[in-house]
């Protein structure tokens, strides 16, 4: 269905507006130095949960793919259940990793100015591309 528009009325363009977050905590140490808390505690917790999750997922994933330990005494799998525990830990940590990602996305909107990013801005992608070039040794700083 088409709606007739009045050419005299100027159309407003819709734009995604990013709500500015709060500023990072600053503490003046003396006249020349300021301590800035860039990464808040939740961001640090997200980081360490991700680091732990990735390490555990790699170890359990390799074990599931190529078991390097088996029961020393041949017995029923019911008694040792080693592969079952590896899979259980792997799936549990995978869910932890996924939930951590979802909570981190929430913190993108609620965190301070350093914890947020806006993928809807062109400058976000320009900065991301510059960072990729830097890490691929295509650009010197």
Automatic annotation (TrEMBL):
UniProt KW keywords: Cell membrane, Electron transport, Heme, Iron, Membrane, Metal-binding, Transmembrane, Transmembrane helix, Transport
Give membrane topology per the record: Multi-pass membrane protein
Biological process according to GO: respiratory electron transport chain
Keyword Chaperone: yes or no? no
InterPro entries, alphabetized: Cyt_b561_bac/Ni-Hgenase, Di-haem_cyt_TM, Hydrogenase_cytochrome, Ni-dep_Hydgase_cyt-B
> Which Gene3D superfamilies does the record associate with it?
Transmembrane di-heme cytochromes, Chain C (1.20.950.20)
Annotated protein name in UniProt: NiFe-hydrogenase I cytochrome b subunit
Q: Which residues form the Cytochrome b561 bacterial/Ni-hydrogenase domain?
A: 38-137
Q: Does the entry feature the keyword Repeat, yes or no?
A: no
The record ties this protein, via Pfam families, to: Ni_hydr_CYTB (PF01292)
UniProt GO MF annotations: electron transfer activity; heme binding; iron ion binding
Q: What is the lineage of its organism?
A: Bacteria, Bacillati, Bacillota, Bacilli, Bacillales
> Localized where?
Cell membrane
**Where is it mainly found?**
membrane
Please give the start and end residues of each transmembrane region.
45-64, 85-107
According to its UniProt record, which protein family does this protein belong to? Answer: Belongs to the HupC/HyaC/HydC family.
Query: Which GO cellular component term is one of those annotated?
Result: plasma membrane
């Amino acid at each position: 269905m088409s709606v007739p528009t009045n050419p005299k009325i100027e159309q407003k363009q819709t734009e995604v507006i990013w709500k500015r977050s709060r500023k990072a905590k600053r503490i003046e140490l003396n006249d020349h130095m300021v301590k800035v808390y860039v990464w808040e505690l939740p961001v640090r917790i997200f980081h360490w949960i991700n680091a732990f999750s990735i390490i555990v997922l790699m170890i359990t994933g390799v074990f599931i793919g190529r078991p390097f330990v088996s029961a020393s005494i041949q017995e029923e799998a019911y008694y040792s259940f080693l592969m079952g525990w590896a899979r259980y830990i792997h799936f549990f940590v995978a869910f932890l990793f996924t939930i951590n990602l979802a909570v981190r996305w929430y913190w993108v909107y609620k965190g301070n100015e350093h914890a947020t990013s806006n993928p809807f801005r062109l400058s976000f992608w320009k900065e991301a591309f510059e960072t990729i070039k830097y890490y691929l040794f295509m650009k010197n700083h």
